């Protein structure tokens, strides 16, 4: 048996190792090639996955759009139904408006007819009122005539009660104040305390003498002026001044007694009374009086 030299043995081992290394390298190269191919395949799959993802997104968007379209179609259907309802309601409203217009026209016609009737009634009533006014005027004239006749009868009754024929009729009165206060200027002064009233021609309620007998009369008024005042009293016949008296007391302690008198013709119904010019109070009620009497009857 031959033994190889040692360097040969070592070379042989080295060669064997190199061959093994080559085999291992080739194996790893083949594996690396497989890995590279796998990597390319993975990249390709990722592209495919990305494409599928994009298609899936589009599909999802399509589904969402489809759902929205369905919703819009449902809404459109609801709107169409609502429009139909509104159109139907509008037709009903137009019909109602036409009906109301006819009713209003009928009512206006009724009102116009009623106004015309009322105008005719008013015209008729106005004619009746005019007739009544005319009748009332005639009636007033008749009343005045009757009052004149009645006054004549009263005068004649007074004459008969006194037992004469009117030539010797007695009429006379005297009255004085019950307070110092006088009414407003121009108003009749009421002499409320009556001491004589023959014929009852003087009224203590109004202060007015009303003639019942035609004839010549005498009237006199007298009064006391208080200290520090000024006053003027007038005898009036049917609102016309016949005479007046003026009093002026400069000092508080001064008093004076003005008076005035008048003779006048009176017929039944004439009124005689006393008024003041300024309405101030007098100084004494007992010293302030109004007197009148018939001088001669006609």
Describe this structure in words.
The protein has one helix spanning 6-161, and strands spanning 172-176, 193-198, 209-210, 215-224, 230-237, 240-248, 259-266, 271-276, 284-297. 52% of the residues lie in helices and 23% in strands. It folds into 2 domains: 1-116; 167-297, Jelly Rolls, CATH 2.60.120. The protein is α+β, with helices and mostly antiparallel strands and 298 residues long.
Backbone structural class: alpha+beta
Quaternary class: single chain
Distance separating the two termini: 219 Å
**What name is given to the CATH topology of the largest domain?**
Jelly Rolls
The spatial strand order of the largest sheet comes to 2-1-9-4-7
Rounded Rg: 69 Å
Task: Tally the beta strands.
Answer: 9
Helical content band: 40-55%
| Main sheet record | 5 strands, antiparallel
Which parts are unreliable, with pLDDT below 50 for 5 consecutive residues or more?
none
What are the salient characteristics of this protein?
9 strands; 23% strand; 298 residues; 5-stranded antiparallel β-sheet; 2 domains; 4-stranded antiparallel β-sheet; alpha+beta
């Amino acid at each position: 048996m031959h033994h190889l030299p040692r360097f040969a043995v070592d070379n042989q081992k080295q060669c064997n190792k190199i061959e093994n290394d080559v085999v291992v390298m080739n194996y790893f190269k083949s594996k690396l090639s497989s890995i590279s191919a796998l990597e390319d395949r993975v990249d390709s799959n990722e592209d495919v996955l990305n494409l599928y993802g994009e298609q899936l997104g589009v599909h999802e968007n399509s589904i969402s759009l489809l759902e929205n379209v369905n919703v819009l179609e449902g809404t459109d259907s609801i709107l169409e139904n609502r429009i139909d309802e509104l159109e139907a309601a509008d037709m009903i409203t137009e019909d109602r408006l036409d009906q109301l217009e006819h009713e209003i026209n009928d009512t206006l016609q009724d009102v116009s007819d009623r106004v015309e009737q009322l105008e005719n009634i008013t015209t008729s009533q106005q004619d009746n009122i005019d007739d009544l006014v005319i009748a009332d005027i005639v009636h007033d004239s008749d009343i005045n005539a009757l009052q004149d006749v009645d006054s004549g009868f009263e005068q004649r009754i007074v004459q008969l009660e006194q037992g004469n024929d009117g030539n010797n009729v007695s009429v006379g009165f005297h009255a004085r104040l019950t307070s110092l206060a006088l009414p407003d200027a121009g108003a009749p002064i009421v002499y409320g305390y009556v001491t004589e009233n023959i014929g009852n021609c003087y009224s203590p309620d109004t202060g007015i003498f009303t003639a019942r007998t035609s004839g010549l009369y005498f009237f006199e008024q007298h009064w006391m002026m208080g200290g520090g005042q000024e006053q003027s009293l007038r005898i009036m016949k049917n609102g016309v001044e016949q005479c007046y008296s003026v009093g002026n007391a400069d000092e508080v302690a001064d008093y004076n007694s003005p008076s005035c008198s008048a003779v006048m013709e009176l017929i039944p119904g004439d009124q005689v009374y006393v008024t003041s010019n300024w309405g101030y109070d007098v100084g004494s009620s007992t010293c302030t009086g109004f007197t009148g009497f018939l001088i001669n009857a006609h």
